[in-house]
Amino acid sequence: MPRARINGVELAYELQGSGDPVVMIHGAQGDRSMFAAIAPTFAQHFQVLTFDQRGSGQSEKPDMDYSTAMLTDDTAALMDQVGFSSAHIIGVSMGGMIAQEFALRHSNRVRRLVLGCTTPGGLHSVRLGGEALARAYSTQPMSAEERGRALAEACFTKGYIDQHPQIIPAMIEARRQRPIDPIALDHRMKAAYAHDTYDRLPQIACPTLVITGKDDMLISWENSRILAERIPNATLVVLEPAGHLFWGEQPEKSQTEILGFLRTRQ
Questions:
Q1: What is the pTM of this model?
Q2: Residues near 210 by beta carbon (within 8 Å), at least 6 away in sequence
Q3: How far from each other are the two terminal CA atoms of the chain, in whole angstroms?
Q4: CATH number at residue 97
Q5: Among candidate residues 115, 73, 81, 82, the one with its CA nearest the CA of residue 96
Q6: Residue 251 forms part of a structural domain
Q7: Fewest CB atoms less than 10 Å from the CB: which of 103, 188, 229, 231?
Q8: Alpha-carbon gap, residue 165 to 101, rounded angstroms
Q9: In a domain, 154, yes or no
């Protein structure tokens, strides 16, 4: 697995495919494996960069304050490392917060922007998801079984879990293979809670797709509506039934919408 020292922190990353560059930015307690099911499909059309952010996966986890601006600048520096002068940027959940900051801080490096299941943050947004989020994203030590089950139940609709009973064991095994560092998660969650781009969203000038699941228990779909209303000429797609991991519940529709958007030439 390639690694690069970025802004003083060693990050693990992966490049797949060829063509126009695409950068995929994962969520708060995720890592690049969040995109394992879809990155190969995108790599048939693009050169895809996935990576573990600081505090995540196989990357270093410094005990320090994080911010979405810091994680944005890490992303830009990693793009420099792999030779991406610009790229399509796809961010989901907290990764969507980072993607918003990227479009604001590094506007000349964004070709097209995809914001998935995310929020502008701040007082004008719909509050992040209450009990489900508190349980699934607890920064207290938890067993793989506890965290995996809580995350599955928060991220997928009950109907989907009932139809796919392997989801919970798979999430538990994922947490066993890639355990969460509670200290790093605490830094990441504080960065997510501090995120606020609401007033600056009209400055985003690149073509933007906002996409989410109607049944998201963690980040209300209403936040996507707010994003689409605030970003000039943004397109909003709401999938249902679908929870927070909408691309897992609705893979064909998600990929059709996102790939179609990225491949539009205008």
A1: 0.97
A2: 115, 116, 224, 227, 228, 231, 234, 235, 236, 237
A3: 36
A4: 3.40.50.1820
A5: 115
A6: yes
A7: 229
A8: 37
A9: no
